[in-house]
Amino acid sequence: MSSPIDLLRRQVSDLHQDLVRYNLVVWTAGNVSARVPGEDLLVIKPSGVAYDELSPENMILCDLDGNVVEGDHSPSSDTAAHAYVYRHMPEVGGVVHTHSTYACAWAARGEAVPCVLTAMADEFGAEIPVGPFALIGDDSIGRGIVETLRGHRSPAVLMKSHGVFTIGKDAKAAVKAAVMCEDVARTVHISRQLGEPLPIAQDDIDRLNYRYQNVYGQPRAAR
Amino acid sequence: MSSPIDLLRRQVSDLHQDLVRYNLVVWTAGNVSARVPGEDLLVIKPSGVAYDELSPENMILCDLDGNVVEGDHSPSSDTAAHAYVYRHMPEVGGVVHTHSTYACAWAARGEAVPCVLTAMADEFGAEIPVGPFALIGDDSIGRGIVETLRGHRSPAVLMKSHGVFTIGKDAKAAVKAAVMCEDVARTVHISRQLGEPLPIAQDDIDRLNYRYQNVYGQPRAAR
Amino acid sequence: MSSPIDLLRRQVSDLHQDLVRYNLVVWTAGNVSARVPGEDLLVIKPSGVAYDELSPENMILCDLDGNVVEGDHSPSSDTAAHAYVYRHMPEVGGVVHTHSTYACAWAARGEAVPCVLTAMADEFGAEIPVGPFALIGDDSIGRGIVETLRGHRSPAVLMKSHGVFTIGKDAKAAVKAAVMCEDVARTVHISRQLGEPLPIAQDDIDRLNYRYQNVYGQPRAAR
Amino acid sequence: MSSPIDLLRRQVSDLHQDLVRYNLVVWTAGNVSARVPGEDLLVIKPSGVAYDELSPENMILCDLDGNVVEGDHSPSSDTAAHAYVYRHMPEVGGVVHTHSTYACAWAARGEAVPCVLTAMADEFGAEIPVGPFALIGDDSIGRGIVETLRGHRSPAVLMKSHGVFTIGKDAKAAVKAAVMCEDVARTVHISRQLGEPLPIAQDDIDRLNYRYQNVYGQPRAAR
């Protein structure tokens, strides 16, 4: 019989395949984590391991300070940022980090993706904001994510000159946000190449977002 | 033995794989429907279900007001728009909706794709037109589609700031229109990035379209 | 035991998979043909049939006027153009037609792809030239191809507002030319988006082309 | 029992699949080689052979002057360049050559890719530099690679009007550099299409590069 942590190991391992399938990552540059519900623990990708070598068994279990609790490899070098988010945003159950191409292209200019598609209004409810430039090695990246996303409708932040972090109620929701972030970053980029996308009125953005977050899809369990 | 509705359930389920294969959709953002010939019914994708979890069994059967007649899930949140098209365009047997990248890039600027490729003259016989900005929730989207496409040669409309709807004599024809719409939206976009595509004379567009719609391909049954 | 024509049917059927694999075609928009060596016959794709439904058996055998000699379907609607090339260029053993994206983007502007990559000098030995605008239905397309490519080093022509035709000593060589044509059309397009690619001296183009056409690769049989 | 050279044949053969998987090559245009540790030998792709026909058995064993020691085919036409690198950079254990699209787009303009992403600071530690225009046939290409990369942090060089060469401590590291080179060349290109990417301070580049080269990932053996 599988424990809740075993199930989470499998889910986190499997979700990395969505990063590959939607072309959000190359080589080993991207990672998914999940909070262990009700415990001060998280499950995350091992560092520097190829996506087709991931398995439930080699996922790393860490505490919320990023220390390894169980696992034979080092955890992702982005573990500190994931852990910071879980410590400071109790509503977050999953975190994803990628260097997906179009999102990084906006991040490299330090420019937010404007909300000019109804699908963006649905998913993000606002522009996708830019977070500060921050070096790896301490809490700077985690703090930048939390300060940007706290109180923001968007579950995605473009960290300046770096890449994307997304959050969700669970790891699957965070992966979905990473997929949609790249999709709209690409579409809006391409639209702007030949002119200026039309704005959507704030009122319409609000209505679309409210409806999507509260009505769309199957009853919660099936989403 | 399979009933006509069972066959349609299979066809609609399978055609969603073409949306995936031709990169017209990510996550769950796109849907195919078919009219049940001779009945006031349609078959459509369930809402918020992943493409690799679709099967003939979980397709939803609705009446032409979008009410579920048979099915365990909610129907696509775009069902009202599909149903409106079937109610008002009796010649339409299939409807497709996508947020495909290049088509959406034109839609975000509210700009029609000009007919500057012989393949566009063949398939669309004209520019691909823009429909109004419309919020989900009532008949606005359906009405915008019908008012734009009625009397137009193009089987595709770019709904402003939103995405693509295509129609066809059956679901397969509507899927083909969605595939070709993205293909020409991409090619014309890329062409315009480095200059201005050459116009094709209206007379030539007319001749190409007439020939393609009446001569090309295998006898109708085999298309 | 397989006859030479049976082997050619298999080869032509299989080579269509390369068009799919290298993203040169969508739906049914592209075709490969081969001359039957020593006979006034060609083997070509049936019209309007999906790529994953192609088989040696449903390839169409035509004479060099494009009349069906053997086959249950109509031949490709581009058969007249292929046949014209075989009638007027006896050295050609294979012809390919695609609407590949970047090549069509240049074709839509009526602009040749300049020879600014050593790989282009190798394969094409010159710019990839533009052929005339020509309607389907008579010999205009075939004549445009032949008049543009005769005496030109390039095995590929961009037919204005239409697409690509490539030729080769056999069908595989024509497919390779179609693959490389899209590859260099894309790279040069992308290069020009941010400035002007550096020219390569004519003398260097000549040397590269001579070497590649005469020295590169395995002994002829193994190419 | 497998000899060290047999293992290397397999590794070099397999690594070509990464070139395909990451879309760095079309047809036969790209190659991987590895130095045989402790011997004046290298293993390289045969010339003009398709990627899905590669096997450990048809890899070519050459001396460091590029002469075939063992193998039924001709070695890659780029063997002289690989061999030159091994002769002049004893620390190099693997070399990769591709015509990957975005890297070639910068190479065609003779323009270095500026270091404006933290992932570039990690992997390349600097801009990706441009090497001279050089014709195939003598040591010009090899010399251009070595003169550009010697003393440079970047393991990748954009050879003017030509393509990419990357080096690594082994063939896998060189393949990784080729994958990351195309990835950042693409992201920076796309970023610059709509404005100017923000610079990263030299000091920050230095710190990121030092950390990544010394701390990241699993202990060396597992990388």
From TrEMBL, chains A, B, C, D:
<keyword id="KW-0479">Metal-binding</keyword>
<dbReference type="InterPro" id="IPR036409">
    <property type="entry name" value="Aldolase_II/adducin_N_sf"/>
</dbReference>
<dbReference type="Pfam" id="PF00596">
    <property type="entry name" value="Aldolase_II"/>
</dbReference>
<dbReference type="InterPro" id="IPR001303">
    <property type="entry name" value="Aldolase_II/adducin_N"/>
</dbReference>
<feature type="domain" description="Class II aldolase/adducin N-terminal">
    <location>
        <begin position="10"/>
        <end position="189"/>
    </location>
</feature>
<dbReference type="InterPro" id="IPR050197">
    <property type="entry name" value="Aldolase_class_II_sugar_metab"/>
</dbReference>
<protein>
    <recommendedName>
        <fullName>L-ribulose-5-phosphate 4-epimerase</fullName>
        <ecNumber>5.1.3.4</ecNumber>
    </recommendedName>
</protein>
<keyword id="KW-0862">Zinc</keyword>
<comment type="similarity">
    <text>Belongs to the aldolase class II family. AraD/FucA subfamily.</text>
</comment>
